[in-house]
Amino acid sequence: MERLRFATVGSVDDGKSTLIGRLLYDSKSIFEDQLEHIEAVSKRRGDDYVDLSLLTDGLRAEREQGITIDVAYRYFATPKRSFIIADCPGHIQYTRNMITGASNVDLAIVLIDARTGVIEQTRRHSLLVSLLGVPHLVICVNKMDLVDFDQAVFDRIRQEFEEFASRLDLQDVTFLPISALAGDNVVTRSANMPWFEGSTLLHHLENVYTASDDNRIDTRFPVQFVIRPQRSDFPDYRGFAGRVAGGVLHVGDDVMVLPSGLTTTITGIDSPLGPVEKAEPGDAVTLLLADDLSITRGDMICRPNNRPRVSQELEAMLCWMDDASPLQQNKIYSIKHTTNSARAKITNVLYRLNISTLHRETGVSELQMNEIGRVTLHTTAPLMFDDYHQNRSTGCFIIVDEATGQTAGAGMLLSPRT
Asked: Which of 31, 180, 196, 295 is most open to solvent, judged by the fewest CB atoms within 10 Å of its CB?
């Protein structure tokens, strides 16, 4: 069954967790004991309705404060698709959690409170979705029941968002007026908004076209593990396991191994279900090669005439996530990229991006937690990578503080500015 990964983002109390709860409830994807539990909790808190947001706000601190802190993942399926939902926190201090949750999704849902319209956190999250290269965006104007389902309110917010989004790199944007609490236009069409002729949210999620989102042209296979069983029934077996990060691999294809530059031919592709003739983006497979080459974890298998960039000098947009220490220029960090690791230092902060105004602030030398900037890096070993907007899998990396072992930053590799 085809799978769609999507994230819900937006400001605090815009109804993200309630929306997911409504999706799960109306699509009959929750167990009876779960429903009984949240009914009891809602009654104990004095609510005169079943608070569906409790289905995702799993931490005790979240339930007590009525906000989402961690990224909550939920799963459900319809006859058309299966879904993985990342419910991202809306509070500004948890921006790094939001980036983590939305970093590898196919679609993002941005919720806007119909009473307040486009606010700073709406712009902040929309910018981050744009920077993360999320292919599809759904703007859900929520709480339409609190503005009497007024079409003028929806049209005004849509125009306001479109004016801001014209400065962002957003490809596919859809607008929906909904009420997550009452269920209007979430799973079933709303009789309260006959003026809206679009589909419901669930119908859109089931039918949004994602087949062209993956990079099926640039073949990229980061080697994760070398498999040598050394068993009597497999005396000569030597396979290279990993996940296809781009392109389509076929048995018989000529390939090149980087960084060595040696070439060979694919003689077999093993999958969890047995031998296959091809492997597509996202498939976890083991490649068998014609020649006995020296290949190790971190190497990249590609096509001879279509290679990634190989360099120790990098340029990237970097989101700083360390709450204990700001980014420090020329400090040695560890960098994790695909299946490869190296040591790296940030040699320059080109600018810090004001994610409220989109203004580029130059003359800065550090980034604090949740701040985003364009930086240059130098690594101790070459990385094999693509521009992030060309391939999200080979264009992303994380920075780790060697002293604490904590993830300090997450970045998107870009082509150098000319």
From this structure: 31
